[in-house]
Amino acid sequence: MTITLLPYHQDERLPDASFPLPGHDVVAVEPELPDGDVWQRVAALFEPVAAEVAGQIGRGSMPRVVCLTAEAVLAGVQKAGVDAAIVWFDAHGDVHTTESSTSGYIGGMPLRQILGADTALLADRLGLRTLAEDRAVLVDARDLDPAEAEFLASSQVRRCTVDDVTLPPGPLVLHIDVDVIDAADLPGLKFPVGGGPSYDAVVASVRRIMATGRVAALDIACPWHPPQDGDGDVRARLLKDLLTA
Fold it and tell me: Does residue 171 contact residue 211 with C-beta atoms inside 8 Å?
């Protein structure tokens, strides 16, 4: 099993210890970054990820990608000729636009961009065909800004819990942001949220989805701080459980 790793948070290179992947065949994507704004630099990181994903599907493999690259993964799946919907596990909505975001944090925007917002920033550069809202499922998002709650209330995005995921038809890109897990079960998260599902409940839900045989690609986002004492063991176990689900 080959793991594609983009060891970045946006355009910031993260320490190798952030990604405990012992025993796996890891392909690290580290292109030279251009000058320019953060969107240009992120696009330069995402383009080779999309190509790697498309290549793996073309060779008959299911891509497994680690880090914050959902748009690249979906673009790569599409480049391989697979018309996939998306299932998005996250404690947050990730449905801001550049206009609605008060922080400007681009990690709060990818699902909305997949659904057609701000396409010039990444989707057009990656050749990503945006999805209709009813082809997206948002799982256990519970920390929503007012603009995100307003959008979701009037959208066709399906919302559910990890215990009752309703899947759209056809092939799937499965995106797991590890902060969907209750903060008490997973220390060191950059954006921890309480009141969520347990570690075991999330892994069990992922296993049920994988068992359908419809997952075209798996994308795992790890927005956590560099590991402290003991964090590495929990993270290594989590990544192994998700990657081999």
Answer: no
